[in-house]
Amino acid sequence: MKLSQLFTKTLREAPTDEEAINAKLLVRSGFVFKNSAGIYSFLPLGWRVLNKIADIIREEMNAIGGQELFMPALVEKKYMEPTGRWDLDVGYYVNEKRKAQNEKQEQFVLGWSHEEVLTTIATKFISSYKDLPFSAYQIQTKFRHEARAKSGLLRGREFMMKDLYSFHVSEEDLSQYYEKVAKAYHKIFERCGLKSIYTLAGGGVFTDKFTHEFQILSDIGEDTVYICDKCEYAENEEIAKIKNGDRCPNCNGKIEEKKSIEVGNIFNQGTKYSEALDLQFTGENGHKKPVVMGAYGIGLGRVMGTVVEVHHDDRGIIWPENIAPFKVHLIVLDGHNKEADKVYDDLIKNGVEVLYDDREDRTPGEKFADADLIGCPIRLVVSKKTLEKDGVEIKKRNSKELNIAKIADIKKQL
Ligand code: ATP
Ligand code: MG
């Protein structure tokens, strides 16, 4: 991608209506646009990052047997009423046809979670123990009435979520799958450059049972966790039996209080939804039983915002390579566009993702500042100085070290 063609531009100043670092940096660098409080557009650079996160999630969900599907955002009242969740103050209600409708009562809610929709779908296909287990997921926009939408991508009123649901004959079978998902989640966050802490938590509006959250330690986090300094056993303060200074119930290490961001959440839902929506199966003995369910969520935008909170410096974002919008940020100086064009074309031919600052109306200082702000992992510079050595300057975003590589060797050094 050539920067001269990219329709977005970096902003000189941080936006004044944002408090959180992730929002300030992502708006300034042209990754996202704030449409309203808690509602963002993903611009070309930001959309690339979000899609990379989505691809990582897909790979790991597919690897544990998750089947991808896509459900509607408009959820009719009849789905939510049987579980008592129609009246919860979480969603935005929508009228079916404002003018034609005599009664003003809303018939739809913008989907904020899809247990009811998928459970209803499953009643059409699942009838025997032979049909179980199975799991299905989607990556889709969710809508939630969030009162405090002020943390940028961390808490949106509209946001992208991966929601996986699993269906089992028994609690034991669910437990085994739950462990698999937990492992896949740790992998997903690690691949996105985040170290996740497996944390015991309450169930909110989803289940009466204990759940597990994947927390990323960060001072901007809204959550407080008590975590062992040795084995990393952790509990969310909402349910915690341990407190600061206690001994760890697992390993006798020391418990510390930390702020954190919940990027993922997994739930044992038992038979709450299957009973309410009549999803049953006939067991080997011929008896009918409600299906046992689990649900597992990850907020994609929240992951992206968290990565920025964790990986930045005073000059900009430092993207982990797996989710960087581009691997390489190529800068041309001193009007050597012909030589730099060739480097660009060669890298593209070799399958390297390159953002190429070919703009002729920018100073070197502006180009370097933009490269640091946007935060691609590797910066290459083609200039008079480097060409005298028949080379290109290489610098990693997370290091100060500068090296010159021969043009013919660039690919090897990336
Ligand atoms: P929170 O306690 O932060 O409100 P939640 O318990 O409501 O989250 P879930 O319904 O379990 O979250 O959603 C699954 C995942 O979706 C969360 O772990 C988080 O990553 C993401 N998520 C939830 N609410 C938001 C939001 N308002 N904005 C962005 N991501 C969100
Ligand atoms: Mg919530």
TrEMBL record:
Classification via Pfam families: HGTP_anticodon, tRNA-synt_2b
Any one biological process term the GO annotation gives: prolyl-tRNA aminoacylation
EC number: 6.1.1.15
The protein's enzyme class: ligase
Signal sequence annotation: none
Keywords for the protein's UniProt record, in alphabetical order: Aminoacyl-tRNA synthetase, ATP-binding, Ligase, Nucleotide-binding, Protein biosynthesis
GO CC annotations on file: cytosol
Single GO molecular function: proline-tRNA ligase activity
InterPro entries the UniProt entry points to: aa-tRNA-synt_IIb, aa-tRNA-synth_II, aa-tRNA-synth_II/BPL/LPL, Anticodon-bd, Anticodon-bd_dom_sf, Pro-tRNA-ligase_IIa, Pro-tRNA_synthetase, ProRS_anticodon_short
Protein name per Swiss-Prot or TrEMBL: Proline--tRNA ligase
Species of origin: Candidatus Yanofskybacteria bacterium RIFCSPHIGHO2_01_FULL_41_53
